[in-house]
Write a structure and sequence with these properties.
Largest sheet of chain A: 9 strands, mixed
Helix content of chain A: 25-40%
Low-confidence stretches of chain A: 1-62, 192-205, 717-723
Number of domains of chain A: 4
Strand order of the largest sheet of chain A: 3-10-11-21-16-15-14-12-13
CATH superfamily of the largest domain in chain A: Bira Bifunctional Protein, Domain 2
Oligomer: homodimer
Largest interface: A-B, 79 and 79 residues
CATH architecture of the largest domain in chain A: 2-Layer Sandwich
Strand content of chain A: 15-25%
Mean pLDDT of chain A: 83
Number of strands of chain A: 28
Distance between the termini of chain A: 68 Å
Structural class of chain A: alpha+beta
């Protein structure tokens, strides 16, 4: 019936399970780190992990919630982010370019703080070797790594309006529209998804309430279940078979062609040296492996790490910061001996940590329920393959927790067999729940020895570890010795063929031959093409001896465990997770708050003089200066707005603390300190307040501690001024 | 004699002075920030500032000194940098790519620390608005900014071996070789320069001891003095006129053609959107000006800042980190009202700071002697144009001092008239003295309103400030009122011409016309092409009144003061400035030391257990953990080398402090703390030592303070173990 479809990787039953799964679990957003499923045996056109995965999350709008558990008003949040310049489309005054965004001051500070914590949490904590490699990469490197041939998506073109469509997205969109029309015709409830309005509008054109045959529905669902497995030709055949047409024009698009996702350029003046912008930071780390190992005085295991921009020329980027063409990555390459079960010497420090795991077996059975288990248990029972992988999953979890990701909106999802490259023994994604569904924000994969091996093979560079064995390894085996002086002259032109046949014998065969030689004084060897195919070799030409050999050095290519972070996606998820409005407290609905933890907040302190009275100026200036000296970022708002309004404006920026300078300050040098989330205040001398802020920002004290140490201030609730 | 030469910008006398200057002052290395001389009126091919400047420093080898003032052994330093992986050629196992370098762990940490200090010193201190804009930039933006047309160098090709030469470098090299040959033939001493060995070898081929006519010598010197002023055609004519040949082949290269220095690529799948990798971060900041102004609640002045990679496709990069194709920049765009003499409200904080200034007048008189003056004095006497520029020069100086740049190897050199774009009223470079001469590491230019103006004109976006005037501005002037109902019918087809002629009158003319109208009841207007060119207009068609108008808003385009930092150049200079060897103390010559200040050092503490005795392990682990919690980077060296050797190895990495754990530690919990530069040690309890380290790293205490507080340890001078 569908002769062109690939051999299903799953049983028909599993196919149906997956089909259910498709509509309820996986993110519609592409993974940051998608290299994990890229393997030499993958189809020529590289379909990396969930790169082609467009599985959708129903009812996202109702699922997305604020920090306080209320439904998320995404339009209000987006208005806030635009208004306060967290990020903005690049080159907007020139009309903008899809998939490119600039970070404004709060976004930029948020990003810098996330990176700072990342660097301390991973690099400093683990003595990782940070490197900063170039983005510009010559062709040969990415040819070897496989990106030149395989890092591509399939695209097709509308013959009428020239619109370029990503083939798999197109097939999926049209089939889903038909299924939706069928449901409507049957009077069933249709799930609504939150997505790009332009896209929605376009799709609605192609969506009519038209009942389909039951068999057709089943066929469409089966196609959608394995949409990730089709290559370009197969997608083209699906388009023809089902007569899929672009809703915008009513035309069938052209057959899909490969579109490599790397940005290409030329290096140097002669234009001979083709180059690309790297699609990941990993390759630079692999190429420096030998130097890094030497820097680490030859000791294994060790990790390198890199923070930098990478580039992917998406065919049609949407979804804001979640899918962009230029993005900041933070990647770790942990090099480990493949022998010894990839133990980790600090695993005991994290084994008690509990994670929400969604393993592959659960997914294959059509379930999406996560299991909350300790990482120690997960490694013991084999859910997570090894300690090193488990260690990093726990460390990733701790990092996300530290920066303020909602603990109820993290899960670790294991790749299924058809998502994962053949060399990977295990692969998990940290997914964060947002208004766009579960978004892969961190990938944690075992890349095995693949990269080091291909680069070593191509260049001849020894990307290996030479380990001096504590105990020399004694090897005993059958060895062949030829009496060359006689052997050649005896066999003449057949000499090489006979020798090759002898040398090709296995240890088992040699054992038998040795016995035969001892017993008969000769052996008979099969040498196809020489005489009748059987050749006698006597013991004056040949000896077969049981030999002992001692090896002092073991050479091996390390395996790589790679935690890979998409900083932009984490940043966006962090914003959503920390957003809420005072509406839930009976206040003004428009009063958005971003409850970032102090360490990650773009600015730590807002300084608010009660009025524009010049008497406050020296105090404000001194306060700013003291905070600066303490390395704490602050901003002064001396506008004429009420104090409540000024605090409220700043809640939108996520500033955790506010200091008010009033007439009392001039008398006794005390100021008030306001905490953003509770809006509660304490009052104390300036230096005490600065110490309190420092402790709060460094995380050595909580607001509760401060409230218990310093007198509460209730005389003048600044927030009342707004209500 | 040289009809194709451009009109000299300087008098003949000044030309000779410059000629002397060329050989003694300016750096042979290209500036990081070269945009300052780029102006719309510049030659079509953009020769930016010293981009084409190849003025050389004689006897650099003897001039370059270590931190201790001894001659610098550059080969030894380079060996150290390679061995300890400060940086390394990118893609080395694939043969490398010129102008691309990867930073290894110490280089990467050094870079991160420089950036961290930069961010605190400028962004935090001044409440600057940091943005992070994309590197990918569409064609239109860089077309408007002028980069597409003008950001180019001239290159020519050797017809025999295909070698590509930068035309100005080629002309300069060959003429200099001839002058050198002439000097040798005259038996004069020839100055030796330190440079790329490949280049040197190539040049020596073309260099024969051949005496030239005095007139020829003079002519060559005049050409070299103005080498920056030639365009491609002129360089081509010089090549023909003097029959300049590539020493490698003996051939005359092809006529120069323009080579744009931007890396080009295509954005999106249709390849229609041409794009470039940005050559500077500035444009992204300019395009966001309106949003940034709004973010700053409309208040002026303010500054934006950006730290990020930029790209220049150099024709033939050499000189290591000093001239690369991918580099990290940190740029500030300070937006200021062009009225009011560009005062700066914090200028009083820096006015006492003394700088080494090399002003343009000194240079034009052929001198290179800097003047040490306070920036307050320099602004008062007009050497530095305005307070804002002066403020930033002082702040740049303080930053360079803070990170550990040698105070005797900084100067601020003013651009001369022919280096500077016409819109710049002043421009100064912070130059650092290295083994490659004076290297421009920071540029500080006044870009005027150029960029905002051209982008506003192109896009129609209002890149302006609307200032509410404190006192409304009253404008009184002559205004024309036409009696339109009668005017049109009266003049019929000539109406428009007559009206245009009337409206084109100046205020002065209108005053006279008003008087004429009052006296004669009519006026005579010159209207070419209408009748005899004179037209009578009577007072029933026209009134001319003295009118009063009130303006409440003033609109203006801000000017931009731009301090722009080349981080890689600063980093390399910092390494050279802090390098010395213990040789000067009678120790082993090979014992290199990098005396970075603690705040900037890649790693702060080396932890050294006395031996590999397992009893030390818990203490070492606890110590590492405590330092980590305090945010202080440390590394453990538990190798079997002697303590002296281990410290010595670490001196090469610039680690300022060492902590030794020995048997006494196990008894009483005390450890020793060693200071890198003096190799002196104190001994105290672990926590006291950690507090001391923290104070040293934060800069609140000096080593002298620590020595006065904690008991000196002399029982076991670890350095003796090496001597």
């Amino acid at each position: 019936m569908k002769p062109f479809l690939p051999t299903p990787l799953l049983s028909p039953l599993a196919g149906i399970a997956l089909n259910n799964l498709r509509r309820v679990v996986a993110p519609r957003v592409f993974p940051v780190r998608s290299f994990t499923a890229f393997a030499p045996s993958a189809p020529r056109i590289y379909a990396f992990a969930k790169y082609t995965s467009k599985k959708k999350q129903p009812n996202m709008t109702t699922m997305a919630t604020t920090l306080k558990g209320e439904p998320l008003d995404k339009a209000a949040l987006e208005s806030l982010l635009r208004r306060r310049m967290f990020y903005t489309p690049s080159f907007e005054i020139y009309g903008g370019v899809a998939g490119l965004y600039d970070y404004g001051p709060p976004g930029c500070a948020l990003q810098a703080n996330i990176i700072d914590i990342w660097r301390k949490h991973f690099i400093l904590e683990e003595d990782m070797l940070e490197v900063d490699c170039t983005v510009l990469t010559p062709h040969d490197v990415l040819k070897t790594s496989g990106h030149v041939d395989k890092f591509a998506d399939w695209m097709c073109k509308d013959p009428k309006n020239g619109e370029i469509l990503r083939a798999d997205h197109f097939v999926e969109d049209v089939l889903e529209a038909r299924l939706k029309g069928d449901k409507e015709a049957r009077g069933q409830k249709v799930e609504e998804k939150e997505e790009d309005p332009k896209r929605k509008k376009k799709k609605s054109k192609g969506h009519e309430a038209l009942k389909l045959d039951d068999a057709v529905v089943k066929e469409y669902e089966e196609v959608l279940a394995q949409i990730d497995n089709y290559n370009g030709e197969q997608l083209g055949e699906l388009i023809k078979k089902y007569d899929l047409r672009n809703p915008a024009t009513g035309e069938q698009p052209s057959p899909p062609v490969a579109f490599n996702l790397m940005f290409q350029t030329s290096i140097g003046p002669s234009s001979n040296l083709r180059g690309y912008l790297r699609p990941e930071t990993a390759q630079g780390q692999f190429l420096n492996f030998a130097k890094l190992l030497e820097f680490n005085t030859g000791q294994m295991p060790f990790a390198s790490a890199s923070i930098g921009k990478s580039y992917r020329n998406e065919i049609s980027p949407r979804a804001g910061l979640l899918r962009v063409r230029e993005f900041l990555m933070a990647e770790i390459e942990h090099f480990v001996d493949p022998e010894g079960h990839k133990k980790h010497h600090r695993f005991h420090e994290v084994e008690h940590i509990e994670l929400e795991l969604l393993d592959r077996h659960t997914q294959l059975s059509g379930q999406t329920k996560t299991k909350r288990v300790s990482i120690g248990q997960a490694v013991r029972d084999g859910t997570v393959d090894n300690e090193t992988l488990g260690y990093f999953l726990a460390r990733i979890h701790l990092f996300l927790k530290k920066i303020g990701i909602d603990q109820n909106k993290i899960r670790f999802r294991q790749h299924m067999a058809n998502e994962m490259a053949h060399y990977a023994c295990d692969c998990w994604d940290a997914e964060l729940l947002t208004s766009s569904g579960w978004v892969e924000c961190v990938g944690c994969a075992d890349r095995s020895a693949y990269d080091l091996s291909v680069h070593a093979k191509k260049t001849g560079a020894p990307l290996i570890v030479r380990q001096r064995l504590d105990e020399p390894k004694v090897i005993e085996e059958w060895e062949i010795e030829l009496e060359r002086k006689k052997f050649g002259p005896f066999f003449k032109k057949d000499g090489r063929a006979v020798e090759a046949a002898i040398m090709a014998t296995t240890q088992g065969e040699r054992g038998k031959l040795a016995k035969e030689l001892e017993e008969n004084g000769k052996v008979v060897i099969n040498v196809p093409g020489v005489g009748d195919g059987k050749v006698e070799v006597s013991k004056d030409l040949l000896a077969i001896k049981w030999q002992k050999r001692v090896e002092n050095i073991r050479e091996y290519t390390p395996n790589v465990i790679e935690p890979s972070f998409g900083i932009g996606r984490i940043l966006y998820s962090l914003i959503e997770h920390n957003y809420w409005t005072r509406a839930s407290e009976g206040g003004d609905e428009a009063r958005g708050v971003l409850s970032f933890p102090p360490a990650v907040a773009p600015t730590k302190v807002l300084i608010v003089p009660l009025s524009s009275n010049k008497d406050f100026t020296p105090t404000v200036r001194k306060l700013s200066q003291k905070l600066r000296s303490a390395g704490i970022s602050s901003r002064v708002d001396d506008s004429s707005a009420s104090i409540g309004k000024r605090y409220s404006r700043n809640d939108e920026l996520g500033t955790p603390f506010g200091v008010t300078v009033d007439f009392q300050t001039i008398k006794d040098g005390t100021v008030t300190l306001r905490e953003r989330d509770s809006t509660r205040q304490v009052r104390a001398e300036e230096d005490e307040i600065i110490n309190a802020i420092r402790a709060l920002v460094e995380g050595t004290k909580t607001w509760q501690d401060i409230e218990s140490e310093l007198p509460l201030f209730e005389g003048q609730d600044v927030d009342l001024t707004l209500r």
